[in-house]
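Supplementary Methods, section 5.1.

A reviewer requested that the exact input to the structure prediction be made available. We therefore reproduce it here, unchanged from the version used in the analyses.
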Amino acid sequence: MQIKSATAEEYISKIPDDRKEAMTKLRNEVLKNLPKGFQETCSYGMFGYVVPHSIFPEGYHCDPLQPLPFAGMASQKNFIAFYHMGIYSDPKLLDWFLKEYPKHTDAKLDMGKSCIRFKKPEKIPFKLFGELMSKMSVQDWINKYQAAREEHAKKAVKKASKKSCQKKITQAMVTYLSMLRGINVGGKKVPMAELREVYEALKYKNVRTYIQSGNVLFDTRATDEQALSATLEKKITARFGFEVPVVIRTEKELAAVLKKNPFLKEENLQEDKLYITFLAEIPSKELLEKIKVPDGSSDQFVIAGKEVYLYCPGGYGETKLSNSFFERKLKVKATTRNWRTSNELLKMMTS
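The structure derived from this sequence is encoded token-by-token as follows.
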């Protein structure tokens, strides 16, 4: 039974009255024994205790935007549940808990892999749960979590043949280009060395930058471009104190974009007047049908998928076809690179 709430206090205020006292007492016992570094938070329709991104930037592997979960408690339909992932990962801790449990309560143990259930709140062994929480530090939990992930990966590799395994590993790492919009102009100063540190803290590999306008290349096994953008935007905001839209492209996507530029077929073309506006997503059909070049402008554009090809005879500094123009008209995030920069970025990705 999920309950939407921003704090543990709000969560407890919304559960049945006959459970409020027990949940409050259980929470207080946990907080009294909670090792340094864990944070109380609300997620997944309950409240619990996590390792924050400031300590473990990778986050939870199921959803890297979420911090690494450790323990939690919830008021379910027919019982109060206490979740402790440390018990699941540490056989010695589980053995200790099983031996101690009957010393603190006469209630029959109702337990899954990491969930302990109580239908009668008065039977909860509060001090036992407090002691349980004290037995695993933040670093202990991170070590257990990473070891479990590594063991899972090893088992997955063993199940595959050597040939398919090698193919999978070769294909796993993807090179991405992330383009930041509007940095190092208008007061939004972002040193490239510090920007690389943000990516490296997320465990991305082969991080490198090109010029000062916010072009960062990196390798990762992640495949969800929207999730990557969201993670980077969140971390960049936390590091520099202001929001920066981030648009992602793979090497294959960028190569296709450059190859399909419709203006390259025109005669007497000035390549230094070519630009590409990269969109975060494909605009709606309704908005695409409405957009047109502003009156009095000699500039041209062609929209294809998530790209806007621009030809600006007077240069980009004089055009009305700015990032803001397309964001306003198409309702998507946008960032622009000139033709030379776009080609240099592809060279870096393929080298």
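The CA atoms of residues 175 and 219 lie 4 Å apart. These observations are discussed further in the main text.
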